[in-house]
Amino acid sequence: MKKVAIVTIYDLNNCGNRLQNYALQYFIENKGLSVMTIKNNIDLNHAADGESRIKNTYKFFKQVIKDHTDIITKNQRLINFVKFNKNIKTTPKYYSRNNKVRNNEYDYYIVGSDQVWNPTIHRMTNFELLNFIDSKNKIAYAASLGVNNIDEESSNKLKSELQKFKAISVREDAGKKIIDGLRINKTVEVLIDPTMLLSDDEWDKVSNKPKNIKENERYILNYFLGKLPEEWDNEIRRIAKENDCKIINLLDESDPYYVSGPSEFLYLEKNAFLVCTDSFHSSVFSIIYDTPFVVFKRKDKLVSMNSRLDTLLSKFELENRKFNGRISDDLLKCDYSNAKEILLKEQNKSAAFLKNALREE
User: Fold this and answer.
1) Cβ neighbours of 60 (radius 10 Å)
2) Are 89 and 35 in contact (CB under 8 A)?
3) 3-state class of 106 per DSSP?
4) I need a labelling partner for 317 at 20 to 30 A (CA). Which of 23, 75, 127, 161 fits?
5) Nearest to residue 241, comparing CAs of 327, 333, 321?
């Protein structure tokens, strides 16, 4: 059986990250290959700003994974992430950019998806560009740069390493434009995020109902990675009041649902009256689960990271889901039949890419 190694961001604090990792593993395994995700502690190599905090977080995660119950009981959210992560097959040890994988250890190496090539969050390292192995079977699946442009140093590095890849695909149109501009003489495809390769029924297999939610309870799910301005909050509260919904602020540490992990996130996405979000993956699962959703532009001090959402909404012809100052009654309904037809074509396109990339020369 051929062996595949996945290189991605290894984040036990982000639902979308863990779900896309699981999805890519699930999809490839169903094609009859053995899959393993390479755990990495690459963040430790970029700890100039807040080095001690990152190192302490890393040590904390290691202790939790080793089942130190005295720590586990103090953080139910992390427990739920660790529980979900048991669905993902990972290497026994952590790797960094200084580690070398034996050339015969895996037959194929796939980097992606998520923002593995976003230099503004200290990505696009040698590790995420698969520089740590000598292999002709380097593949990028729906890799994301997460931004609309990159600096000259990053461009030169990306150009040098991508010339060694067998097959390249990205998640956003902006990423394709950047790589095409490097003139590396390789075809670059724009493919869907791994999460969209699985059906709603397949996702239900790893979904879990949160303990504190009541049967048939109406709620609006807020999933904001950036700030939620007062005017947006007021508009969401208006909709909640008019439709007898409570509001769940999933990423607010003061909210009882903050403890939710990826499995609970799936349940909340599926059963929400409305999803309000600035998150790519929250929007993805709203489409998968036929849940009404409204997309808000990310509000933070970082560079714009809206390219992935722009590509998603454009590809599935759902630009009307963008917030324009008011949540209209039309946004409380949804008909994704056209989007599902597009999704089927995109799934076939992605399957063909992976089939060809994982084929022996």
Assistant:
1) 15
2) yes
3) coil
4) 23
5) 327
H-type helices in 89-198, by residue range?
152-162, 173-180
DSSP H or E segment with residue 345: helix 337-357
307 and 276 Cβ atoms separated by less than 8 Å: no
Q: Is 229 helix (H, G, I), strand (E, B) or coil?
A: coil
Q: Is 262 left (phi over 0), alpha (psi -120 to 50) or beta?
A: alpha
Place of tokens 């963008």: 322
Q: 223 has which bridge partners?
A: 277
Nearest to 222 by CA among 293, 165, 289: 293
Q: Are 8 and 88 in contact (CB under 8 A)?
A: no
CA distance 350 to 141: 9
- Beta-carbon contacts of 44 under 8 Å, excluding residues fewer than 6 positions away, are 54, 55, 58, 96
- For residue 338, what are the CA distances in angstroms to 80, 323, 345? 35, 21, 11
CA 132 – CA 288 distance, rounded (Å): 36
The answer to whether the bond into 113 is cis (omega within 30° of 0) is yes
State the Cα–Cα distance between residues 228 and 238, nearest whole angstrom: 15
Q: Which of 7-16, 20-29, 104-113, 296-305 has the lowest mean pLDDT?
A: 296-305
- How far apart CA 307 and CA 137 sit, in angstroms, is 28
**Average pLDDT estimate for 182-186:** 92
Helix (H, G, I), strand (E, B) or coil at 213: coil
**Higher pLDDT among residues 10 and 99, named by residue:** 10
- Nearest CA-CA partner of 33 in 6, 9, 11: 6
- How many residues are recorded in the chain? 361
CA distances (Å), 100 to each of 94, 125, 134, 143, 355, in order?
Answer: 11, 14, 9, 22, 27
Q: Which of 222, 277, 229 is nearest to 246 (CA)?
A: 222
Give the pLDDT confidence score for residue 97 in this predicted structure: 60
Q: Set out the domains of the chain in order of their start, with CATH numbers.
A: 3-199+344-357 (3.40.50), 201-340 (3.40.50)
Number of CB atoms found within 10 A of residue 93's CB: 9
Amino acid at 332: L
Residue indicated by tokens 């953080």? 75
